[in-house]
Amino acid sequence: MSGTLVLVRHGQSDWNLKNLFTGWKDPELTELGVQEATAGGQALAETGIKFDIAFTSELKRAQETCRIVLEKVGQSGLETIRDLALNERDYGDLSGLNKDDARAKWGEEQVHIWRRSYDIPPPGGESLRDTGARVWPYYLTEILPRVLKGQTVLVAAHGNSLRSLVMVLDRLSKEEILKLNLATGVPMVYKLNADSTVASKQVLGDMSGAH
């Protein structure tokens, strides 16, 4: 058996709370988001896990979640690499808009297609496939080799960048990944085999908070 990969979606952000398309915009965590990240970190601490390195995006909500998780496992100051390859999907012209206002402007069906299709991007933005096209190479070159060396690696990122990874790790189809919602602040612990396939997966915490 090889190393361990832990994926954590950031806690609730201010714009999640306000029902806004966020993408590459950079709001802070809400009080609830801090609590979610804290709970995720505590759940990891209870397993006794220790990380060798952490990765996060260029956006504050993921960085803060990463910081809180590391603090809870007693590893504040661990080397953390930030890269925009792990950023949330870019929602383009939808970024900053209230989801209800977007539906009023473009229609319920069109907005639903942008949000839930695999390969149709919103105007000026990325589809889930586009997001995967930057996440997967980064994972293969920067993250996976460390796990295969036996390291324990934390990735604190976003709903769609992590869905891209989960799609590959869990071998999900395009249809299956579109139905998957990752709970905020809930760690997913993967043990990988030497051939990079998944030996085991454990989700720590209550999934009822998924949104």
From TrEMBL:
Enzyme Commission no: 5.4.2.11
GO molecular function, one term: phosphoglycerate mutase activity
A biological process from GO: glycolytic process
Function: Catalyzes the interconversion of 2-phosphoglycerate and 3-phosphoglycerate.
Subunit description: Homodimer.
PANTHER family: PHOSPHOGLYCERATE MUTASE (PTHR11931)
Family: Belongs to the phosphoglycerate mutase family. BPG-dependent PGAM subfamily.
Protein name (database record): 2,3-bisphosphoglycerate-dependent phosphoglycerate mutase
Gene: gpmA
